Amino acid sequence: MELDQLASLNNWTHECVLSALNHARQAKRRGCHGAGGRINDTTKGLLREWLEGNLYRVPEGKERETLLQETGWSLAQLNHQIYQMRDKWENERALAIEDGKRKVLGVVEGEALVKQWLDDNNGRSPTRDERIMLQNQTGWTRKKITYRIRRIMIGDCDTTPLTEEAKLYVKSWLETNHNRQPSKEEMNELMHATGWARTQMNEQLRHLRETPGELSAENRMIIMNWLKEHDNDMPTIKERTELREKTGLNRRQLNAFLRSQKKKTEG
Q: Which tens digits make up the pLDDT trace of 154-175?
């Protein structure tokens, strides 16, 4: 297959295609062609954070090499994850545009429709095509559909009530530990302390960790001092994670502030 065909199929520049081919040749010489690292929430989060910070554009040659190093994935794994995440983003963006052109069901009506679908399908999770069908029927985004399905499925299980006392306990733990994800042992301790099921704990952690922090003068100073110490270079994915832990900001807040500072510097 010629260079132009490869570039067209993958929506890459010629430089990106050449870099990918070079990486594949090097992997083959090392005898590890097709080998890769572990795909988990942590490595997916590294890629997702990069894509969010770069408006979901396809990474170029050197950027792709950096992502390969930070995730430990093979080129095939990286390309597959990029395709999946960009496809999901484009789907949600298209639905957001269409929201103004069709009826969007309310929470009660929409949940009734989703619950009926789950009952008709023995409580199983819908496939990708079935989720798109539910999105079209409710007018909801993919994220909202996924959230409501999770809530309905949790509600149908034998779970412990989500009391305010238990929520405050988990929130206090996150504040003490700089809003980081608990380890497996710490997760078990939190589940034992609150009495929650693992599904409940994961849902609450996701919600609490994504709750925006305060972009205070102190947090601004922490980020600006970091940029000054690094000659205004943009932080890597791991460095962004460290900054988020220090400030308590979520990904979108930090990325937005970094972009703002970059524009000021370049201007």
A: 654 445 677 888 888 998 888 8
The closest alpha carbon to 83, from 59, 49, 54, belongs to 59
pTM: 0.33
Nearest Cα to Cα of residue 51 among 213, 244, 255? 255
Mapping DSSP onto H, E and C, the string for 26-95 reads HHHHCCCCCCCCCCCHHHHHHHHHHHHHCCCCCCCHHHHHHHHHHHCCCHHHHHHHHHHHHHHHHHHHHH
User: Average pLDDT, whole number, for the chain?
Assistant: 78
Contact between residue 265 and residue 232 where contact means Cβ atoms under 8 Å apart = yes
Write out the two tokens for 173.
């733990």
Element (H, E) at 113: helix 107-120
For the purposes of burial, counting CB atoms within 10 Å of the CB of 218, is it exposed (0-12), middle (13-18) or buried (19 or more)? exposed
> Which residues, at least 6 apart from 140, have a Cβ–Cβ distance to it below 8 Å?
104, 105, 110, 134, 148
**pLDDT band of 41, cuts 50, 70, 90:** confident
Q: 139 in helix, strand or coil? A: coil
Q: Quick one: pLDDT band at residue 246, thresholds 50, 70, 90?
A: confident
Which one-letter DSSP state was computed for residue 124?
A: P
Handedness of CA 204, 206, 207, 212 (dihedral sign): positive
Are 204 and 162 contacting, i.e. CB atoms less than 8 angstroms apart? yes
Q: What distance lies between CA 36 and its chain's CA centroid?
A: 20
For residues 80 and 194, give the distance between their C-alpha atoms in angstroms, rounded to a whole number. 38
